[in-house]
Automatic annotation (TrEMBL):
Protein name: Excinuclease ABC
Domain spans labelled GIY-YIG: 13-102
Family matches, as Pfam families: LEM-3_GIY-YIG (PF22945)
Species name: Aquirufa ecclesiirivi
Domain of life per record: Bacteria
Amino acid sequence: MIELFSQKTQEELKSYVYILIDPRDNKIFYVGKGLGNRVFSHINDALINPSFTEKLEIIRAIKIDNLKVKHFIIKHGLEENEALIVESVLIDFLTFRDFAEVAKISNIVAGHHSFNQGIKTVNECEILYNCEELKKEDIQHNVLVININKSYDNKRKKKSDNPDYDRPNIYEATRGWWVLDKKRAENSDYVLAEYRGVIRAIFKPEKWVQDIEHRGTKRWGFEGSEVTDTEILDIYLNKEIPKIKGMANPISYFKKI
């Protein structure tokens, strides 16, 4: 488990809200907000600060049991005033006596920005923002990379003409419809969804189909499933795509070496 964020990760996180969890019972014992490495600062405080607060005593007891506090980033990429609001809401919710016995929450659905600004462990934040580059020599399959910046960030308008973000899930944002070489697509073992330069998901295409609404431009999409094989994920997931000079096309092909 990491104990400090890299400089790059700190800059990308901006202001954030975090929680500390006691590994002995998996209960939240502290909610805070901060910048940089603030989330980790309480551990050092418990060691060098002689004060006897409930928070510090919990951390000391965890250390005595040779365990480690669990750190989670609840929301990041915030301005300071936004972080204050999120922190306040969380504290109110978690300390309100009538919510103490809540057994089920019905709306367990990933929210907007779930794979870049949703709940994450501190390790996942570091992977997200300090990821390594996928080198061409490491590519072990024929892969088609699709940049989904526009399809995932697609800004649509409601009937009232008020702008609103309508985010599809990442599979729908990746599967179609694209101007591409159908033969090369069919020869690809996997489709890699690339968002803001990083591979966020991997799909196994089973069939390529043409968009009937755009037959003249030959736009294609695929039907398939998300890859969960850890061997494949370890090769490609959360890696920066190889840099191609002057690349503007959202479609890129890479052959196995």
